[in-house]
Specification:
The chain is about 35% helix and about 25% strand. It has about 70 residues and is an alpha+beta fold. Belongs to the CsrA/RsmA family.
Length: about 70
């Protein structure tokens, strides 16, 4: 993992077209601004993890249903 230090109003570039800017620092919270193309999907990690888990559940459910259909043939 690359670890960088930044101060308020300083930025980090990811590739050629994604810019992360430190907007505000208050205690243990940091507000980050993200400037990226609309084609880039951005999620907070906890939301991303929830989406992945829901996708896994849906895939397992689909497999269970498929197994039931195949057993009935």
């Amino acid at each position: 993992m690359l670890v960088l230090s930044r101060k308020k109003d300083q930025a980090i570039m990811l590739g050629d077209n994604i810019e992360l800017t430190i907007i505000e620092i208050q205690g243990d919270q940091v507000r980050i601004g993200i400037n990226a193309p609309k084609s880039v999907t951005i999620y907070r990690k906890e939301i991303f993890v929830e989406i992945q888990e829901e996708n896994r559940k849906a895939a397992r459910s689909g497999m269970i249903q498929l197994d039931a259909i195949l057993k009935n043939k």
